[in-house]
Amino acid sequence: MFEMQDHLIKATAAGAMVRAVAAVTTDTIEEARRRQGSLPTATAALGRVMTGAALLASLLKEGHKVTLQLKGDGPLKEVTGDAEFNGNIRGYVRKPQVHLPSRAGKLDVGGAIGTRGTLSVTKDVGLKEPYAGIVSLVTGEVGDDLSEYLLTSEQQPSAVALGVLVGTENSVMAAGGYLVQPLVGAEDEVIAAIERNIAKAQPVSDMVHSGLDARAILEHVLAGLDVEIKGRQELRFNCGCSRARAERTLIALGPKELKDMLAEGKDVELNCNFCDESYIFSIEDIRSILEEIKKRWVIHSS
Ligand code: ZN
Q: Domain check: are 109 and 198 in the same one?
């Protein structure tokens, strides 16, 4: 199989009556799988959520980002995906060791997430307060839930497909997804054509596995509707955490917590849930952070 850099393609169709985006995320999801140490069902859930976040982020603007979080009554408990407009994606699954028997030949993501719970979408678009919407889960399969969110919270009918194919060694062989949205004024005939195309289409993970790129996926789903490519974005796993951010987390704990840490006399290790990176702060580091906090206090109060 040939190598393909993860990417997404944005397009319109039927003379701008339809907006669509498709993504290939195989390497990104494999990187997340490796860092989370997840088993196949957990990996499939993680990959669908991260890919869904990437699709939503592509509809925002430069500098904006989105977080997709599913919390359910299934054994995974919580799955989160973060994506930025620039193509950075990361993800986290609370119980990565979950693997369930397949159902009808497919990884049982709905069973692992659960059908009772919520999907929340938080968009950071540079305003003081991020935009947040929340809906009840429909099936826990992620695609259906995202489609429900878009309809009820954003009044935007959407077809969403998300898929991850996991190989025998637990590694990700293919991952991707697409989002198709008829816009206001779309003719019934156009919507019917999309429905026919999607009904005929293979699962999106199979399309990626057979070597289709995002553009080819859109050409299948929007066949006969004059696809016009509007943009391309490379995608990658990128956490964005740093020692400076870890330090801010420590500062936010407040002087009392930090003094307790000093009294313990041990190094403090902060571990990132998303990428598994560790940031270690020595007693000396903690002491100088405390000094910094004190200095700020003096400056602000004078
Ligand atoms: Zn990280």
A: yes
Residue 26 three-state SS: helix
The CA 253 to ligand 1 mean position distance, Å, reads: 19
Query: If you measure from the C-alpha of residue 181 to the centroid of ligand 1, how many angstroms do you get, rounded to a whole number?
Result: 33
**By the 8 A CB rule, do 194 and 182 touch?**
yes
For the stretch 186-245, pLDDT in tens is 999 999 999 999 999 999 999 999 999 999 999 999 999 999 999 999 999 999 999 999
- Closest among 17, 6, 3 to 235, alpha carbons compared: 6
- Residue 149 to residue 133: CA distance in whole angstroms: 8
List the CATH number of the domain containing 267: 3.90.1280.10
**Structural domain tally of the chain?**
2
For 109-131, what is the mean pLDDT?
94
pTM of this prediction?
0.93
Same domain, 189 and 250: no
Q: Which of 6, 40, 36 is nearest to 24 (CA)?
A: 6
CB under 5 Å of ion ligand 1: residues: 239, 241, 272, 274-275, 277
Q: Based on the fold, state whether residues 138 and 111 are members of the same structural domain.
A: yes
CATH number of the domain at 131, please: 3.55.30.10
Task: Dump pLDDT digits (tens) for 255-267.
Answer: 899 999 999 999 9
251 and 127 co-located in one domain: no
Task: Tell how strand 88-93 and strand 236-237 pair up.
Answer: parallel
Domain assignment present for residue 1? The answer is no
Residue 153 contacts residue 146 (beta carbons within 8 Å):
no
Contact 161, 35 (CB under 8 A): no
Distance 101 CA to ligand 1 centre (A): 31
| Cα 223 to middle of ligand 1, angstroms | 40
Hey, what are 120's tokens? 């929340």
Residue 206 buriedness (CB in 10 A; 0-12 / 13-18 / 19+): middle
